[in-house]
UniProtKB/TrEMBL annotation:
Function: Catalyzes the dehydration of the S-form of NAD(P)HX at the expense of ATP, which is converted to ADP. Together with NAD(P)HX epimerase, which catalyzes the epimerization of the S- and R-forms, the enzyme allows the repair of both epimers of NAD(P)HX, a damaged form of NAD(P)H that is a result of enzymatic or heat-dependent hydration.
Record protein name field: ATP-dependent (S)-NAD(P)H-hydrate dehydratase
GO cellular component term of the entry, any: cytoplasm
Co-factor requirement: Mg(2+)
Domain called YjeF C-terminal: residue spans: 8-324
Main location per the UniProt record: cytoplasm
């Protein structure tokens, strides 16, 4: 582990709440994953379970009724809300227009849920149904009005590609594109500069073009930037790239963002000064989520090798947390690395 990574993880550790008897249910994180459709039920489950396993108090999944019936069988620990709707198959053009017009009404119960949450993950298992995308667009706009933190991945990035103004300038947003998704976003914003050969320069340029959102570009190393501050997560990961590993990342980042809320609210005392800044902690949450995911992948690969699956990362989240941060406890808050 490089000295730079050690220093970054030391700051991330300050965001992690100690386990105090004075806390009550929900204070240490209420995260929801908005996704899950008829064909995709695993992705929202892996994201929500990553959040739960990392230490979020309450993990929700907001999905379609078909997906909800399946996800409920995966774990009783998740709260599943079948509030999303897909466009019915084989409908006329007129009916399709009527369904599209109903998107704002269908989004209202989801928007109302934001008051009960700390962070929203958008995209895992979302699919490309036009009605689902219209509902999500309404939810994103409402989240922006409330300055509500959001993490976008997978098919939610398709929405950004179609309309970059949906999140442009929204600094409470974290995007987690892989290399292919990154290139699509790069083209969508129409950046004129090449960014040179440096991956850090490219992620900085895209974050600036999107008005200061935080981007985690996934790859051999993970590059994180809001256009002004850039970091590299160079921790070793596993060599198997199974589907679903990115969902562990979104759930982990969301939990750190929820802990950011608890830190801002001063639910415990941070003995170090100066206190961490609100903007700084978004980057730290991204760094922490990336580090946890890579460590999960490394540990799981050592055990499973080429048979590794996304569920193996879920099983290793606590071990990864202990490896990177150890016990975080005590009345005085987080102890030092």
């Amino acid at each position: 582990m490089s000295a730079t990574t050690t220093a970054a993880l030391s700051k991330v550790r300050r965001m992690i709440p100690p386990m105090l008897e004075s806390f009550h249910k929900g204070q240490l994180g209420r995260v929801a994953v908005l996704g899950g459709s008829q064909d995709y039920t695993g992705a929202p489950y892996f994201s929500a379970m990553a959040s739960a396993r990392l230490g979020c108090d309450m993990s929700h999944v907001i999905c379609t009724p078909d997906a909800g019936a399946v996800i409920k069988t995966y774990s009783p620990n998740l709260m599943v809300h079948p509030l999303m709707r897909q466009m019915p198959p084989e409908i006329s053009e007129l009916d399709a227009s009527e369904w599209a017009a109903s998107a704002e009404k269908l989004a209202r119960p989801i928007i109302d849920m934001l008051a009960r949450l700390h962070v929203l993950v958008i995209g895992p298992g979302l699919g490309r149904d036009p009605l689902m995308h219209d509902i999500v667009a309404h939810v994103i706009r409402a989240a922006k009005e409330k300055k509500f933190p959001i993490v976008l991945d997978a098919d939610a990035l398709q929405l950004v590609q179609k309309d970059v103004n949906l999140i442009k300038g929204y600094t409470e947003a974290v995007l987690t594109p892989n290399v292919v998704e990154f290139d699509r976003l790069w083209k969508a914003v129409g950046i004129n500069e090449s960014g040179g050969e440096s991956e850090t320069k490219r992620v900085e340029a895209l974050a600036r073009a999107l008005g200061g959102v935080t981007i985690i570009q996934k790859g051999k190393n993970d590059y994180i930037s809001n256009g002004r501050v850039t970091s590299t997560v160079d921790l070793e990961g596993g060599k198997k790239r199974s589907g679903g590993q990115g969902d562990t990342l979104t759930g982990s980042v969301a939990t750190f963002l929820a802990w950011r809320r608890a830190y801002i609210d001063q639910l415990w005392r941070d003995p170090e000064t100066p206190r961490l800044g609100e903007e700084e902690m978004i980057g730290l949450a991204a760094f922490g989520g990336s580090a946890i995911t890579r460590e999960c992948s490394r540990i799981a690969f050592l055990k499973r090798g080429r048979s590794l699956q996304a569920s193996d990362l879920t099983d290793e989240i606590h071990n990864a947390f202990m490896s990177l941060f150890g016990e975080v406890d005590g009345d005085d808050g987080s102890s030092k690395l």
